[in-house]
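Subject: Interface between my chains keeps coming out wrong

I've been trying for a while to get a sensible model of this assembly. When I model each chain on its own everything looks fine, but I need the whole thing in one frame so I can look at the contacts. Pasting all components below, labels as-is. Any help appreciated, I'm running out of ideas.
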Amino acid sequence: MTDTDSTPSTGGTDHTAKAPSRRALIGWGGAGLALGAAAAGGAVAMTRVGNDVDPAGADAGGAVPFHGAHQAGISTPVQDRLHFAAFDVTTRDRAAFVQLLKDWTAAARRMTAGQAVGEGAYGGLAEAPPDDTGEALGLKPSRLTLTIGFGPSLFTKFDLAAQRPDALIDLPKFAGDALDPNRSHGDLCVQACADDPQVAVHAIRNLARIGMGKVVIRWSQLGFGKTSSTTPGAQTPRNLMGFKDGTRNIAGTETDRLDKFVWVGEKDGPGWMTGGSYLVARRIRMHIETWDRTSLQEQEDVFGRDKGEGAPVGKAKEHDEPFLKAMKPDAHVRLAHPHSNGGATILRRGYSFTDGTDGLGRLDAGLFFLAYQRDVREGFVRIQRNLATDALNEYIQHVGSAVFAVPPGVRDADDWWGRTLFAKEA
Amino acid sequence: MTDTDSTPSTGGTDHTAKAPSRRALIGWGGAGLALGAAAAGGAVAMTRVGNDVDPAGADAGGAVPFHGAHQAGISTPVQDRLHFAAFDVTTRDRAAFVQLLKDWTAAARRMTAGQAVGEGAYGGLAEAPPDDTGEALGLKPSRLTLTIGFGPSLFTKFDLAAQRPDALIDLPKFAGDALDPNRSHGDLCVQACADDPQVAVHAIRNLARIGMGKVVIRWSQLGFGKTSSTTPGAQTPRNLMGFKDGTRNIAGTETDRLDKFVWVGEKDGPGWMTGGSYLVARRIRMHIETWDRTSLQEQEDVFGRDKGEGAPVGKAKEHDEPFLKAMKPDAHVRLAHPHSNGGATILRRGYSFTDGTDGLGRLDAGLFFLAYQRDVREGFVRIQRNLATDALNEYIQHVGSAVFAVPPGVRDADDWWGRTLFAKEA
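Reply #2:
Try treating it as a single job with all components included. I did that and got this:
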């Protein structure tokens, strides 16, 4: 894998060490009027910021490192809130698109560190639109992670067809699918996770703003209440059906299982995906009102676990090894279990959603399912095919679907999202 | 005001002292299978809970008292998250509706205390639907408040026309309104605020479930990131335009201002509203992408404050007294200020919202504005009329609207939501 284009963009330099925290900018902001009148630009702004920087490390808490072999936001302990956006690329200019990826990387590097986009806070010039939209000023980094993915349709553009991974298949139609094209697919995705929703929303909004004229948001989804935990020992969260969800999920510390089931290895190919993963996103609407009228026994039969503790049928504790044959043949846990799927295992990172009410007074609520895997064919597809007879299907419907190749991590301050894909032919 | 119907409903008894916390129920839940097999009912369930109750007070933290002269959720320090629902009443049976108000009160009393709905957690019987949907089990009370309101259209039902307060007007059409009837009005509303969105969503969902066949959700709205603070000294949160919002809001501790501007007094009438308030809810869409392309100077001119600190034009600090004449004539702060509106003052309790993307790739985001006042005519209407020339109108649009009479608080374990309205003629 030749890296012929690792030159940093102007926005790509790492200002982490000297740049202001979001909190520090508040102090600077008080001089907004004076600054506006003087139109003094970045230098003055930086000085002002410098006067007001918090003691070292005061705002470091809650920042997840942006650089690494893998992108953050996959094996990272799951944050409380999600803003997920799928974008379509509108530019046909490859250089402009590569520049956008570099600009996005620079912005993501700053925002995940708790910094405003742009060195001079609002750009320094009162006559210009601010570099940062401002609503996250004063908020902590909140463990923000930003994770980018490339959808199948991207590989029909920019002469990328030969680089499309075999593992990035177009998902087949599954039994019961009722997919809304306006909530499906996309050339790109960015998953923003943070413990504060305003921080996640701020990040997606600023990336959309930076991408104006080159990309447009195709659909987006907010989520809350992490339904699956990648933190070992943490209490397993409950989904909106009231059941614990993610009991047997892969923990971020299980490097063996991550290597086996999540990360793309050198031998898997293509080379540009080494260290990456594949993401399947599914918007799963729950028929909440029907579920709520269902007896406890039926609910527990459907899942194959009891509702309170989450113990598998016939067992006492949540983490007891399930005895699948004690469950009904169509129990969800039985059908989804690796033993029923030739060992297929995925890392789940889903969030609950509630998007108001549909025209019939029913909650538009459910699970925004996010799963990472080393090969979509061996992971989600195999499991979802087996769920065709799932008893749960009476109470849910998949209404949105997308799949993305998630490239490896950004190594350092000179690296950028997608370099391994785009640099070799840049 | 005669109280002829203060007899508690079966669900109205206060079990606060002896009932299990959400967390304690987790321990019980582990016996779900055994309980289901035995169908032992509430008694056994309570015993099991009793075995597993946390040490006294361990879960009391984060519970806001439900009983009081005023409903909680108005002057209560603003929680982080909102789920707001407007309902239409579908039953024509007055007794059935009154029973629903009592059942709702009982459920609200338990949920705000961090307890599951129903004494026996899932009802005790495996053959029955659970009394509680379960997704808040194990979560803290999270400062949940539930606040009910009665819309103008309710007073056309159940022979209530004579009880409709003069102050509960149908809002006039304001300049620029583009109201969606599917996001407006409603016979009832419930405002659920909590620091955990799953707790707020759980509460609305369970009230909707309890109301099945009597009421139906007309519309609902999720919100986050409290844009106005009723906590004195707390940092003022920022709205999605990046500006601090709520600098001069009424603090929950300012009893004089609350009595003057928020609570309905005995002399105001009607008697059943004494201790209540009036709520105006407006869904205000922000033209985010247009705003983000606007210069810092223009943004600050529009608001009349600087963006970083939030100081009024010409002043240094956020809480400095504004000098209105230094602002442009159409500045938002100038036009909304009490000095420009004959002293009109409202308690704001709004939340930011982001509901994905519209068909044009633009964020469907903005401010879900909630304002409480003693008289709608003297509060919101006066201010909103003056905002007809607001420079901010170029960047926002009101797309949903509703108004509600918010009755006084539930006094004790025998009291229920709406008693002062319904009991006198029951």
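Reply #3:
Confirming on my end. Strands of chain A lie at 81-89, 145-150, 188-194, 215-224, 277-286, 347-348, 351-357, 363-373, 396-406.
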